[in-house]
């Protein structure tokens, strides 16, 4: 009935207001900022920026996030899709968020100007896509030749300077990250601060782990193959544990009670949205009842 529909809509609005209550009074950072920042963190961890060819005659552009096929992950990607666009696809083992249309993708990735990707790997993938698309629009044959020659060299930052110097592109589409020198302090009210915290929540959905051991030796762990980013995370949260290199991946793990309490307070404020939310709630309950 119309009355029930109005009641449901009111409940949904209340739910959203509660979920993002930390930003309701912050003009610098609102619900839209939170969702986009969270998305970029998730994308930095489990996303892919793809340029492919079809029978060597056309270039195809694609954005993908690929997660385990769990109801919580499906719900998270569906919510992100409803807010940002994109399609949801399900296979036996995975749920995917996908964007295929090249013009839509070019509009979508403009979001990364305000909400930058923080992993070097993704920034180079983005530079390759932007360069290929720009060249492809002007000279299809040249773009296809460059793609075939350079697709295995796309993680070389000098490639995009070369494209610019050769007048293939109007600008160098790659830019490195200079991480700010700041620490996590609760209630600091700047856009950059809230952006990184929401980004980190999304990134944790991909690369974080809340560890419960039978020995009651609990820990929080985050891992990524980007050393500079991992050093920034370590310094930002003032974690004294060393970065461990395990099979080309840098692992940061902390067992200290004060750090664990810090992350409990952090994720209570900067909400996880997918399967890691369940992990976090179980982990938090174990620690609080320890």
Automatic annotation (TrEMBL):
Q: A Gene Ontology CC term for this entry?
A: mitochondrion
Homing endonuclease LAGLIDADG domain span: 40-130, 201-286
Q: Which domain of life is it from?
A: Eukaryota
Sorted UniProt keywords: Mitochondrion
What the entry lists under InterPro entries is as follows: Homing_endonucl, LAGLIDADG_dom, LAGLIDADG_Endonuclease
Gene Ontology MF, one? endonuclease activity
Entries under PANTHER family matching the protein: INTRON-ENCODED ENDONUCLEASE AI3-RELATED
Q: What is this protein called?
A: Homing endonuclease LAGLIDADG domain-containing protein
Q: Which organism is it from?
A: Naumovozyma dairenensis
Protein's gene:
orf290
